[in-house]
Design a protein that fits this description.
about 300 residues, nine-stranded antiparallel sheet, four-stranded antiparallel sheet, about 30% strand, globular
Length: about 300
């Protein structure tokens, strides 16, 4: 049985390399945005049943309440479904999901899986100046499964300073792929949002994946630069009435179909992660994740 499982895993990984991931993802994206009436409702019901999704915590609870699959997938939670940890000296989980890895950024490297590290600089777009504030800091990587709530919220209060779109591959980001595809999070298409906080800089990296139709932010909508290899950057005011600010727990983006959020924190920003937080830990938006270093 073990050898059969290993063969099956190898086939799945090989297919990841050879299949036309972008074409498939864009096609699925168009279908997910289509209003197909009864067919959309049937697909949503099938998805709910297949993944055991808890619709009792959603604001809209029936499959027929959603006119597109994407509207269902990015469904809003009902008021009170999640509680934001209010202590300003803590960081809360930004999403529902499961921790893939977390820990120290050592020599500019983050842990992807056993035997695999990847570059902080590459993750953030290849600019050493962008990566410099996070060298020697900490990181967190949280995977969102298909059943999870797919809106992303702020782990702490912050002001947006820069957004970076980085083109790339669209490998799946599930645990199997993370354990077998080198530099996964630094090679997939992604959107990097860099914030200023009272404790230092925070980067939140929204990583695309196979059949992830698109990534949205609350300030810019769907991020869809022209196809190609160019990296795009947007700068934002650091103060004044035009500054884009967030309170802890505010929504900052969403995935249309699931993926991963990698967060990087400046040195001496996080004192320690919660005792029960580690690889495999199930996360719930708003719950305590880490305490801040009281400088």
């Amino acid at each position: 049985m073990s050898s059969q499982n290993n063969l099956s895993d190898k086939i799945k990984i090989t297919l990841q390399y050879i299949m036309p991931k972008h074409a498939i993802s864009r096609l699925v994206g168009k279908l997910a945005e289509a209003k197909m009436g009864w067919l959309t409702t049937k697909l949503i019901k099938l998805f709910i049943d297949s993944y055991g999704i808890n619709m009792s915590e959603a604001k809209l609870k029936k499959a027929s309440d959603f006119d597109t699959f994407n509207n269902f997938f990015t469904r809003e939670l009902e008021e009170g479904a999640r509680t934001i940890h209010v202590d300003d000296n803590t960081i809360c989980y930004p999403v529902d999901g499961a921790i893939s890895q977390q820990g120290d950024i050592i020599d500019g490297q983050l842990i992807q899986a056993k035997g695999f590290n990847y570059s902080l600089s590459s993750l953030l777009g290849g600019d050493e100046k962008t990566a410099a504030p996070f060298q020697g800091g900490k990181f967190s990587c949280i995977y969102l499964a298909p059943k999870d709530y797919h809106r992303i919220h702020m782990p702490m209060a912050a002001t947006l300073r820069e957004m970076i779109y980085i083109p790339g591959e669209l490998f799946s980001v599930n645990p199997l792929t993370a354990e077998n595809v080198p530099d996964l999070f630094a090679r997939n298409e992604r959107v990097v949002a860099i914030f200023d906080t009272k404790m230092g800089e925070l980067a939140m990296v929204l990583v695309g994946a196979t059949i992830v139709a698109s990534i949205e932010t609350t300030w810019a909508g769907t991020i869809t630069p022209p196809a190609g290899k160019d990296i795009f950057r947007w700068q934002y005011p650091e103060g004044g009435s035009d500054a884009i600010t967030f309170n802890k727990g505010d929504e900052m983006g969403r995935f249309k179909l699931g993926s991963t959020v990698v967060s990087t924190f400046a040195p001496k920003m996080i004192s320690e992660f919660a005792e029960d937080a580690g690889p495999g830990t199930v996360t719930r938006l708003g719950e305590l994740y880490a305490t801040l270093d009281k400088k």
